[in-house]
TrEMBL record:
Protein's GO biological process: L-proline biosynthetic process
Annotated binding of NADP(+), by residue: 6-11
Lineage: Bacteria, Bacillati, Bacillota, Bacilli, Bacillales
UniProt protein name: Late competence protein ComER
Location of the Pyrroline-5-carboxylate reductase dimerisation domain: 159-259
Organism from which the protein derives: Siminovitchia acidinfaciens
Keywords: NADP
PROSITE patterns: P5CR (PS00521)
Residues in Pyrroline-5-carboxylate reductase catalytic N-terminal domain copies: 2-97
NCBIfam families assigned to the protein according to its UniProt record, in alphabetical order: PRK07680.1
Keyword NADP: yes
Amino acid sequence: MKVGVIGTGNMGTIIIEALITGGAVSPSDLIVTNRTKSKADRLKHIFKEITVAGSPDEVIKQSEIIFICVKPLDIISLSKEKASLFTKEKCVISITSPIQVPWLEQLVDASCMRIIPSITNRALAGVSLFTFGKRCEEHWKEMLWEMFSKVSVPLEIDESIIRVSSDIVSCGPAFISFLTRSMITAAEKETKIDETTATMLAENMLIGLGELLKQKHFTFPTLQEKVCVKGGITGEGIAVLEQERGEMFEKLFRATHKKFADEAFHINKKFNS
C-alpha cells in the first residue's frame, strides 16, 4: 500500500516521521513531494527508502492514500486542479481544521477524511482527530484508524467542536510550552536559579506530570488537591494564578475561533469561485 504525502513542512514531516517510527508505514511505501524539493530530500537523507517525487501528480498517481499537508487555501486549489487524479479507489486526507470534509467530497471522487495530528504524535503519544466523509469507504476508515493507533490515540470528532479540539490537541503543546517558558524566565528573573537548571527542572516536571496522568494515579483536580496543602506554599502560588488568570483562556479560544472563522470564510469563497 503506497502512502503519498504532498507537503513536507512541519506537520507533513511529523506525520512521516511518526508513521515510520511507529511501524505504521515502511519508508519504502512512502512517496513524498514538496514545493521546495530540498525539504523533501532532507527526509530521504534520514530514511533512505523514501521516494521523492518531482510533483504532486506523481504522488497522487503512484499512491492509494494521499495526505495533503499544504496551506488550507492551497488544498482547494490542488484538489480542483488534480481532481481527475483523485479517483474513486483512492483515499485523500486533509490535516487542517478549516477544510471541511464535505468540501473535499464535492471536488474529488476519492474517499475523503480529515486527520488532525499533534506534534506529540512524533513521540508516539497524544491524540489524532478524525472526521470521515459520508462517502468514505469502511476499509479506509479501518486502515487509517489502525495506522494512527500506532502513533496516537485516534478520536472521531464532530465538526461542531473540531476547532476547540484542535486547540487542545494540536495547538496545546505550543500553548503549554509558552506558559512553561514564561515560568522559567520569571524564575530566573526573581531568584538565583539559572536558565539551564530551571529548564531541566521544568522539562522533567512535565514528563513526570504526563506519567502521573497516563498511569491514572491522579486526575487534574485530585493532583492539585494532593500538592496544594491547605495553608501551604503551593496554595499561595495557586491564589496568585487564580487572581491573575482572568479570562486568559476564554480570550485564547475566542481568538483561535475568530481566526478559524476568517480562514473558513476565505476558503469557502475560493471553493465556490
